[in-house]
Automatic annotation (TrEMBL):
Entry membrane topology: Multi-pass membrane protein
Pfam families from the UniProt entry: MFS_3
Signal peptide coordinates: none
A GO cellular component annotation in the UniProt record: plasma membrane
Keyword RNA-binding among UniProt keywords: no
Taxonomic lineage: Bacteria, Pseudomonadati, Acidobacteriota, Terriglobia, Terriglobales
Alphabetized UniProt keyword annotations: Cell membrane, Membrane, Transmembrane, Transmembrane helix, Transport
GO molecular function annotation: transmembrane transporter activity
PANTHER family in UniProt: INTEGRAL MEMBRANE EFFLUX PROTEIN-RELATED, STAPHYLOFERRIN A TRANSPORTER
Name of this protein: Predicted arabinose efflux permease, MFS family
Amino acid sequence: MNPEASQDTVEESPVPAVAGAAAAPRVAQSNGFGPLKIPLFRDRWIASTVSNVGTWMQDTAATWLMTALTGSPLLIASMQTAASLPVLMLGLFAGATADIFERRRLLIFWQAWQMVAVFLMAVLALLGVIGPMALLSLTFLMNVGSAMNSPAWQAIVPELVPREELPNAVSLASASNNLARAVGPAMGGLMVALFVKASTGAGWVFALNAGSFAAVIWVLYKWKRKPLFKSALPAERIFGSVGTGLRYLRYAPVLQAIFLRAFLFTFSAAAVWSLLSLIARREFTHSHYISGATGYGVLNGSMGLGAVLAAVALPRIRAKFTADRVLAVASVQFLATLLVLAFIHSVTLDILFLIGGGFAWTCTMATLNTGVQLSSPGWVQARALGMYQMIFQGGLALGSFVWGYVAEHSSVTASMTSAAVLIAIAMPVTLRLHVLRGSLPDLTPYQFKRPVPHLELEPAPEDGPVRILVDYIVDVENYNEFVGRIHKLREVRLRTGAIRWAVFRDGNDAERLEESFVMESWLDYLRSRERMTTEDFAVLQCVRDLHKGEELPRVTHQVYAKEMTHHS
């Protein structure tokens, strides 16, 4: 087959339109609780809160059960690793599935998966036959479901609320989790303490958590979903979708900054989550009023209380301070919490600083999560959230193992101090990584008003590679400005699917420049057209503005030449 080429007068100009989108309901007044006025978001929030209470009861009961089953700090800290490792392994894969498959059905499946895993854990615990490895294994399996569920669960939020309410919706989602964290750990610890055997109390907590998933499944079952972005093209394959997500991240410096900040913070903060049960045992061992299990619930609940206070205060905080300032102050607060837990043996001070630590945790996580959602377009949003969750939980998993190892071979004090020192060392780096700085990009998807380019030799969807050539005529005095602008377009092309990009100047004509980019297939090229956002088009338009003449740049499409097979 000879190279297939067509010469068009213009690379199709898009008009802003959301394919397959339903207009999100508007909220009359923007405030921290505005999204709760939207019935669908409110139902989801209530169901999620019920499930989160059960999950935090489970987390406390399971960690304390492990403390009763073994005295090894490494095994105890490994409970956090078992909770975080699935996201580290599956985060990007989970995001890819959420961007490909119908999210409502996907969510129902993974909620049911978690319910079954927790039910099995409850049965083994109530029968008194659960051991450390079985507890770790089932915790891991439950969190496989959580890892696969999370990107889709977060990615549906923009479908439920208008864009201006998205930061408040993210804060309310964080408040849901942290309200549960304030109540769930204390309830879980109390239930374990009510029974003579820790396995019996933990078993009943596991059984309640298994039932809590039913509320979420019911809300999802009733939901009549209307996606914001729906491609008219065939769905990507899983591994191709993963590759596309990684390519997008490679050329998205804003997301890279968010991910690095998330890793550095969660790696250090993991010292608190993984070793708090040992702090509780240290502080409450000789108490005549509060058992170790209940004390652990109280300390964990203190973090949750601080987190709830932060979720309520965040709308006002965001109105007065930049995201960078919020993140910097939160890091200092968490550093102080680590040092107090390390050196000061006072339950009162522990509780006060854990409230501050929970406040700092939610300020950091809600700000970074909002940054991901507002910095990634709909077509790749679940993959971006999956990568964020992977980095986030990867920091927790690795940090839990490291700080548990340090505690086992040295002391809890040494472990907490090391984590605090790491936050201090990392601050000069994180201050240079800006989040939500300046005006937010308009990531509204565009829909081309012109039909798909017609080629005389029409390629099949999988034919490729495909090379696209765009000819520009530019005044010599505008050459440097044009080159600067078109190199900004390079990131747009590569983010949306191009595997190579270049721009060349004609050796015989100083005014003629040619942009060249390559797609893996004709179908990938069609997908790249769908992926263009308002922000991307503004970059393209800046380049076109320096093109001479009334006609727009000429575009040529070329398909890789393969030998033709002749049939008699």
